[in-house]
Each structure stands twice: as C-alpha cells, then as structure tokens.
Design a protein that fits this description.
By secondary structure, the chain is an alpha/beta fold. It has 15 helices and twelve strands. The chain has helices at residues 9-22, 29-39, 42-48, 58-70, 85-88, 121-136, 149-157, 179-188, 205-216, 231-240, 258-265, 274-281, 301-309, 317-324, 328-340, and strands at residues 73-77, 96-101, 110-115, 140-143, 162-166, 190-193, 219-223, 244-248, 269-270, 315-316, 344-347, 351-354.
C-alpha cells in the first residue's frame, strides 16, 4: 500500500514512517526535518519520540490511502524519486503531498503565475496569453486554482502542462465554481495538496499553499496584486526561497496594481511580455512567439476620439461624452463596437477602460 519508488523493504518502512510523522498533529515541516536530521531516519524518530508527541496511527493512514486511491490519487513522499528537487531543497518542504495526475510534470521547468481573484478582463487575458506562450516554450505553469488570474493561467496552460496546488485536502474543490477546471487538471495536469484528505481550506492554509507554489517554480509572475493581496505573500516567499519575481506593471491610479507596482520599486523584474521572462531563464525547448500587441487602427475620427480619451483606468461614460463632444448615442455605439472587438472592459458605475 505504501510502497513507492523506494526499492528495499527497509525503504518502504521508512516511507511509511515519513507519512505517519508528517500526519502527526504536533509535527510541522520544519520539525519533521529536524527530527530526520537528529535521528538519522524517520523510522527511528517514530520509535524514540517522547510519548507527549503522538505519531499518527497506521490504520488512519491506511484509511486516507484508500480514500486517496478511490479518486485516482497517491502519496508523494519526500525521498520519492518523483518528489520535485526544488521543493525538497527547502527547509520547510512538505514531507508528504497528495497527488492526482501526471507527476512527470514535476521534472520539467516550472513558472508560477499568480494574481488577483477579482481580476480585470485585461489581466485575465494577459495571464492566459502569458501562460500559453510560456507553456509552448516548455514551461509548466503552476498556480493555486483560485478565481481570476489563477484560473486564466491554468486554463491556458492545460494543453502544455499545469500544476494546481490546493489549500485544503486534495478532495476539497475550492472555489466550487472551478470544479470543471479541477477535473480537467486531474485528467491532463497535476493536482497537489499538503493537507490531509478531507481537510477543508481555512485562512492559514493559503500562505502554506503559496510557499509550495513558489517553491516548485524557478520564478513567480505577479499580475494585478492590490496592496493587501495574497499574491504578495507568494512573491515574498519566492524571494525568501531565492526565486525570481516578475511583475506585470499597471497604472499607478489603479488600486489593483498598488502591490504589484510596489514590488517593482523593491527590485522585482518588470515583465511586459513572455520575452522579458525568457530573457532571464531562456527557452527550455521550442522557441516562443512574442505576445502580439498590435491593435487595429481606428475606423473613423469618432472612434479615434474615444480611444484617445480612454486608457487602462476606468473612465465614466458621461465624462467620455463631455471630452469627445459628441452625442451620448454616438459614444455608446463606439463603445459597443470596441467591446465586441474585445478591446473594452466595463466596470461598475457606468465606467469603461481599454484592454
């Protein structure tokens, strides 16, 4: 049941011991590493730990193992041949992960894309373009299955390889609206979770999840992080882990970019497109086509006026009418045409912005 890439009977016993210790209530990742270093093996640690530190029972692990197997998953244990080397090198590496999908993706170069849950349409499109382009170049895209930027990145990278790290147990689909994406990644990518099977995601689980997202990756790309964004935690963990941090810049007037722009001020690498990222890492395999940035020329002078009055910061439609000095009906017609072309995003309060 707990046999894995370990080859000998002794190794299989050590693997079981690692799962038992990792699932023990008073043992976190750092304590696990300290126990391993002090005792020389986790088997010995399980025998010699004081009674006040109870070790998880084998029967409990057997039940979790069966539940995991029923949904197509298995344990990925620190020391397994397919446990990711970059993650294993961290002092707080998760001793055990639950995995569903293609663990072979963990042997490929990985980049994380993270950002706002309430992302703009422009931000989601940029994330999708970036994920697709980097995926075609040979990178596996890692993210946290959240709404917004995470979702856009995972969806775009499904054909080339994506890893989703969950905050709760691997059976806990969060948010529920991403159930279809969860199942698609299980079938075509890889799902990972540190928390035991059946554990619901709670607030303190998300920073722990974020350290895995960054720890798996050579670099983290941040798109639309507000001043208090959880993406900033991922960026900080990436810096602590010695990873590169890339930031897509935005208007200083847009609060969705307050945290992102501050990261640039602190020395993060500005990322305008995939070429800025591959300029640091190179291209793992096939050459990457630059992200297309050209725009169709305005069809007439009224459209040109509206385009000159618009930008990435939302502008009230009434203000557009005043600036362009044309009728409200004419402005509405131009805005509808731009929206149909995918060049306009609408916001609350009857405001619009260019994509």
């Amino acid at each position: 049941m707990f046999d894995g890439p370990f080859t000998s009977e002794t190794d299989a016993a050590e693997r079981l011991a690692r799962v038992r210790l990792a699932r023990s209530p008073r043992i976190g990742p750092v304590t696990f590493q300290e126990a391993l270093q002090h005792f020389g093996s986790v088997r010995r640690a399980c025998r010699e730990l004081p009674p006040k530190i109870p070790v998880a029972a084998e029967d409990d692990l057997a039940r979790e193992d069966r539940a995991l197997a029923r949904i197509g998953g298995r344990f990925l244990v620190l020391g397994d041949s397919d446990y990711p080397a970059a993650l294993a090198a961290l002092p707080d590496a998760p001793p055990v992960l639950s995995a569903i999908g293609d663990t072979g993706l963990l042997a490929r170069p990985m980049l994380a894309i993270v950002g706002a849950r309430e992302a703009s349409l422009a931000g989601r499109r940029f994330a999708a373009d970036l994920a697709a382009t980097l995926g075609r170049a040979g990178f596996v895209i890692v993210s946290g299955l959240a709404r917004g930027i995470d979702t856009a990145a995972h969806e775009a990278a499904l054909p080339t390889g994506t890893v989703a790290v969950l905050a709760g147990g691997i059976d806990q689909i969060y948010p529920r609206q991403n159930e279809g994406l969860y199942r698609a990644i299980a079938g075509r990518g890889l799902l990972l979770a540190e928390s035991p099977f059946g554990t619901p995601p709670i607030a303190r689980s998300f920073p722990r999840r974020n350290r895995i997202v960054s720890g798996l990756s050579a670099g983290v790309i941040v798109i639309e992080a507000a001043a208090q964004s959880g993406s900033l935690i991922t960026a900080q963990r990436a810096l602590d882990q010695g990873r590169e941090v890339f930031v897509v810049p935005g208007s200083p007037m847009d609060p969705r970019y307050a945290g992102s722009n501050n990261l640039i001020r602190q020395g993060a690498i500005l990322a305008r497109d995939a070429n800025d990222i591959m300029g640091v890492f190179g291209k793992p395999q096939a050459a990457c086509q630059p992200i297309e940035k050209s725009r169709e020329a305005p069809r007439d002078s009224t459209t040109a006026k509206v385009l000159r009055a618009l930008g990435s910061v939302p502008t009230a439609v009434d203000e557009l009418v005043r600036r362009c000095q044309v009728s409200a009906a004419t402005v509405a017609e131009v805005l509808t045409a731009l929206e149909l072309e995918g060049r306009l995003e609408r916001h609350r309060g009857n405001s619009v912005s260019l994509i």
